[in-house]
Amino acid sequence: MTLHVSDAEVRRLLGLEPLIPAVRGALIDLSARRVVQPLRSVMEIPPDQGVLFLKPALVDGVLATKLITQIPANAARGLPTMQATIVLMDATTGRTLAVMDATWLTALRTAAASAVAVDCLTPRSPKVVALLGSGVLARTHAAALRAVRPVSEIRVWSRNPENVARCAFEVEGFAKNTAEEAVHGADIVCTVTTAREPVLKGAWLKHGALVAAVGAPRPNWRELDDEAMANVVIADSYEAAAQESGDVILSGAKVTAELGEILAGTRPAPHAGSTIVFKTLGQAVTDTVAARLVYEAACKL
Asked: Please, are residues 202 and 228 in contact by the beta-carbon 8 Å criterion?
């Protein structure tokens, strides 16, 4: 029978400890072309400038398709700006194995990908973290980064002071009044916003910092200015960065490598002390391995 997995069940069944290595393996397989993943389909949703993404992938005999909506106006409605559903199928028979709420799964696997980048590209020393954005992605990033590095301080900024205060309390961090104040001296900066214009300036970045650029998943949206994008740019996918990332396209930045290539050792890591931008577009293969973890955990119950 097809399993139907609620958001509450996904939260109970999916943890960072198995997810981070699963995402790491998925990114390596993506770069090695051992998976099937077409570029996602995108449909604009009028009138509120929302977007529907359709994301399929085939990984190790498991086929998954994720439907995800991004509705920026939901923040004012008290709803998640991103909501998602995954259909998991047996690739041999086409049989539907599970239908699961993927809103939390998306937030956690997104943070897991950033954690994989941090683990690969930064020294193993205590980190000061700046979170630009105060939604669910800020919360999952705080947890995921703490899973791979000692974090000495977390700073939170967004355009909504009430959300900032709430998020800072929940992640045991400090609310900041401006993005520049949050970023100054930070070792890791996570841009997890729905912004369509830059919220991070390269002039604010500490030399040697790592930026996990998570938002702005459309060719005409940006979170980072040209100066920030003039640093070393690593992507989760060359194709996605070239066709979907406004940060990359509008700045004319060159992507140096895919993270999966660096993880596999087929391309060298940036020189020590480099300021790095990890541009992640949220690859369907990472959704697939996360959904498989949920399905396998549910089947054991």
From this structure: yes
Question: What would the pLDDT profile of 198-208 be if each residue is shown by its tens digit?
Answer: 999 999 999 99
User: Per mean pLDDT, which range of 46-60, 109-123, 190-204 is the poorest?
Assistant: 46-60
- Of the candidate ranges 145-149, 288-292, 297-301, the one whose mean pLDDT is the lowest: 297-301
Domain locations in the chain?
Answer: 3-105+285-299, 110-282
Q: What does CATH list as the number for 3-105+285-299? A: 3.30.1780.10
Q: Does residue 60 come out as left (phi exceeding 0), alpha (psi in the -120 to 50 range) or beta?
A: left
CA 89 – CA 295 distance, rounded (Å): 11
Q: Which of 220, 236, 214 is nearest to 81 (CA)?
A: 214
Strand locations in 71-218 (E)? 82-90, 96-101, 127-132, 151-157, 174-175, 188-191, 210-213
CB–CB of 70/51 below 8 Å?
yes
Fold of 110-282: Rossmann fold (3.40.50)
Q: What is the DSSP string of 200-218?
A: B-GGGPPTT-EEEE----S
Give percent of the chain above pLDDT 70: 100
